[in-house]
Design brief:
2 helices; 63 strands; single chain; mainly beta; 852 residues
């Protein structure tokens, strides 16, 4: 350490646009079923409602994917089995050409069976003329008149045309006949001669049969015929029953589906052929009956509307459909004297009476199928079959029971029931009643639940039987079900919280342990975890931390709702399984700040479905608790002397207290005797050493230690050493003790390890005359180290040692107190005659340091 002093002084859509063609002149006519009109009604001209009877009508075939055929009608085929197929075509004996007149044979829709390459049946004899068959007929009249002039029997057609619809591989999918005008040479009425009725007949394979759609369009000129003539119109069809033999009884199909005839083969009487007329189709005929074949002329009128021949008594009378006859029952109800006898039969069908204005279309549909059966093979009356999907199966007891499935095949529209029993074929109970058979003659699926309570461990024999509306039963069907009932779940639950208390803003970790200790099999499905108590305000669950056995649970399976309860979907818990569900529970900062502690108590429950469908649950027992304390934090600040044991506190500072997260300024306190040497924050040294105040955050820092080390320093120096005024003589002048004017030369050493120090001085300015700087005196300043004749004479800029010393305490050592007249201290000696008279000043610099 150096001090300069003077004698006097110093210092960041495809849219697909579908064009729909619509004929603006097409008006769909409707069918009604009303009481006959009275004479008064004929005057008021009651308007009849419309019917959806033009369904499937084709106005422009070639625009709708049909191909026009030249010549005779082609033949379509529908494969029924390996040996049989249905063939269908429009029967005619010569090609039809445009602009010609063709008779009804050109548009007669014929269906026949091909059995091993042999034609064995047809709607009418394949090579004969269907004289008494009329595919299309119309009746007009307001009072159910039987006048022939009110009936049109479609005998001829103008401009006949055939069409076919082909598949991509060029096989026929459907056939169509269209004629531009229906004619009847026997109807001479003025109204009819002015009318024009076009027809369309379509034949389409459907469900092992051929569906026949018949449409008539009223293309009359409204200027020639008024709509009043068409106020009440009926479309009808008469089909001669012909299948191997022309004289054959007509019977009910059952289930109110239609009629059939049967004939044995002409060569093998064990083979029976059946021709079915099925009216259970879309847009069906309204009424149908079995009647007697008769040509439509004579005194007794048309047979379709003559009850003597089994026909309809009136135009709008219902038919045999009201009887809902049992399968196989005779459907002809007009035998002479009510005595059944062989008779040439026919089938009559018609629409209900309806308005048929110019431009509208009326029509209906029916289905024709031909099949065979071998009487030597075991059969049921109407082929009711029942089978199960599995003859043997296993059931492990899951859910409410075992789902048994299978198929039934019946020709009726309804089944009465399917019954079952377990263990024996007796005491069977119905399980499915009045099943609606939507597709008669095909395999239809069914299933039902066998309740778990009905089953026993091991083998269970289950018997089934079906019965239809006609009383026909299926054969008994049996299956074996091997049952292994599961054990009930055995659930335990436990909750652990990792901390007993936290500060506001802190977190705890919940660990929920769930065990199913049951022996397999013991399914426990759809398991849900739920906390039992609502978490209080400012306590939340960190959903991102929810883990099951260390794996994060998908967010979709975790809910923390408005009820402030946590729910977690655990899925299926297998037996002998332990699950650990963990998640963090957070204390959020309250506003205003929390001023007192509070407890959070919680438990949980788990619940899931056992194999019997019952809910099995378990809870974690007593509530577990943790405490949330206010978030005020303390900060301890210490000012310590380095290298002291115990540590010496140099400056006392009270602990600081504030809110977690807030900043606080920290200040060190160095002094003249001690300087800052290092800073520890929670035991970690802060580098570099701070040169100014710095900030820490409450809650993040708990303790700051400032360390200081002692220093060796010149505590004070005399600003002036006054050697006085002396008279200039020829004698030398000596001064042994300068006047310090109350000032002192003192040294303080606060270092922890005491070392020897050395005090030195250097003359940096000779004694110079204040008034005449050119006048100086040299060699006159001396220092006595205590021994006689040991004075040091100062030379300019030469460092001289004044003393060595070791402090024995941290107290001030006053060097100038050791000076005396006869001992230590500065001396001045001016030789005789030395120097010019005047005031002289000199400057010295003190140097203090460790030895040397």
């Amino acid at each position: 350490m150096k001090r300069r002093l003077g004698i006097v002084g110093c210092l960041l859509s495809i849219a697909i646009i579908m064009s729909v063609w619509q004929n603006p002149n097409l008006i769909k006519a409707n069918t009604i079923a009303e009481e006959p009109l009275s004479k008064g009604d004929s005057e008021t001209k009651r308007k009849l409602p419309e019917l959806r009877s033009a369904e499937g009508y084709v106005e422009n075939p070639e625009l709708e994917g049909w191909t026009k055929i030249k010549g005779k009608s082609p033949t379509g085929s529908l494969v029924i089995s390996n040996e049989t197929s249905l063939e269908y075509k429009f029967q005619q004996y010569m090609a039809v050409e445009p602009n010609q007149i063709a008779n009804k044979y050109a548009f007669f829709p014929n269906v026949y069976l091909l059995d091993k390459g042999k034609t064995v049946g047809a709607l009418h004899g394949f090579q004969s003329y269907p004289l008494g068959t009329f595919p299309v007929g119309l009746v007009f009249g307001h009072e159910n008149s039987l006048r022939n002039d009110d009936k049109i029997n479609g005998e001829n057609i103008l401009n006949p045309k055939y069409y076919a619809k082909y598949s991509p591989n060029q096989t026929i999918e459907a056939l169509m006949f269209k004629g531009e005008s229906l004619t009847d040479p026997y109807n001479k009425s003025a109204n009819y001669n002015k009318s024009k009725f076009d027809i369309t007949i379509i034949m389409t394979p459907s469900n092992k049969a051929i569906k026949i759609d018949t449409f008539v369009k009223n293309n009359s000129d409204p200027n020639l015929v008024q709509d009043s003539w068409y106020d009440e119109t009926i479309l009808y069809t008469m089909m001669d029953t012909s299948l191997v033999n022309d004289t054959v009884p007509v019977r009910f199909l059952g289930g109110n589906r239609g009629l059939y005839i049967e004939n044995p083969s002409s060569t093998d009487k064990s083979i029976i052929y059946r021709l079915n007329y099925n009216f259970n189709v879309s847009n069906p005929v309204s009424n149908w009956k079995a009647g007697k074949y008769k040509m439509p002329w004579g005194l007794d009128g048309h047979p379709v509307f003559n009850p003597i021949h089994g026909g309809f008594p009136t135009y709008d009378a219902p038919g045999a459909e009201l009887l809902n006859g049992e399968a196989g029952k005779d459907a002809f109800d007009a035998y002479p004297n009510n005595k059944p006898e062989p008779i040439d039969t026919a089938i009559f069908m018609k629409s209900a009476r309806q308005a048929f204005p110019v431009g509208s279309v009326m029509g209906y549909s029916y289905s024709v199928g031909i099949d065979k059966k071998d009487e030597n093979a075991p059969i049921t009356n109407d082929k009711l079959f029942l089978k199960v999907d599995k003859n043997a199966d296993t059931y492990s007891g899951e859910g409410k029971g075992y789902t048994l499935s299978g198929t039934f095949n019946d020709e009726t529209m309804f089944l009465e029931d399917i019954s079952y029993s377990i263990g024996s074929p007796f005491n069977m109970k119905p399980v499915l009643s009045w099943i609606h058979n939507t597709n008669p003659g095909t395999d239809m699926p069914f299933n039902f639940l066998v309740n778990k309570d009905e089953l026993k461990q091991g083998q269970n024999a289950i018997f089934l039987k079906a019965k239809n509306i006609n009383g026909v039963e299926s054969e008994l069907v049996a299956m074996i079900l091997n049952v292994t009932m599961p054990n009930p779940p055995n659930i335990s639950a436990n909750l652990a919280i990792d901390k007993a208390e936290i500060l506001e803003g802190g977190k705890v970790t919940f660990t929920s342990t769930i065990q199913n200790t049951a022996v397999a099999p013991s399914p426990w499905d759809n398991v849900m975890y739920e906390t039992t108590n609502a978490f209080p305000a400012n306590i939340d669950v960190d959903l991102k931390t929810v883990k099951l056995n260390g794996v994060s649970v998908p967010a979709s399976d975790v809910t923390f709702g408005a009820d402030r309860k946590l729910q977690v979907k655990l899925g299926n818990v297998e037996p002998k399984t332990e699950l650990k569900l963990t998640y963090d529970v957070l204390s959020t900062i309250a506003n205003p700040i929390l001023t007192s502690s509070f407890d959070v108590s919680q438990a949980f429950k788990v619940s899931g479905t056992a194999s019997n469908g019952e809910i099995v649950e378990s809870t974690s027992g007593e509530l577990k608790t943790f405490t949330v304390k206010p978030r005020a934090a303390k900060l301890t600040i210490l000012h310590l002397e380095e290298e002291t044991t115990p540590e010496n506190e140099l400056y006392k500072e009270e602990p600081k207290e504030g809110l977690i997260g807030e900043k606080v300024v920290i200040t060190s306190h160095p002094t003249e005797d001690y300087i800052l040497s290092k800073v520890l924050i929670d035991g970690q040294e802060k580098t570099p050493l701070p040169e100014a105040d710095f900030e820490v955050i409450y809650g993040e820092v708990k303790e700051v230690k400032f360390y200081y080390k002692g220093v060796l320093r010149l505590n004070s120096v005399p600003e002036i050493m006054d050697f006085g005024q002396h008279e200039a003589t020829f004698r030398k002048v000596r001064v042994n003790q300068p006047d310090l004017a109350g000032q002192k030369l003192a040294i303080t050493d606060t270092r922890q390890s005491k070392k020897e120090w050395t005090l030195k001085a250097v003359l940096i300015q000779e004694f110079t005359n204040v008034d005449d700087p050119n006048s100086q005196m040299t060699g006159i300043l001396r220092y006595n180290t205590g021994a006689q004749d040991s004075e040091t004479i100062f030379e300019l800029n030469k460092v001289e040692e004044l003393m060595r010393h070791t402090n024995d305490s941290k107290s001030e050592f006053v060097v100038s107190d050791t000076w005396s007249e006869a001992g230590f201290g500065f001396k001045m000696e001016v030789p005789n005659g030395g120097g010019k008279i005047g005031k002289y000043q000199a400057r010295i610099e003190y140097q203090l340091g460790d030895t040397p």
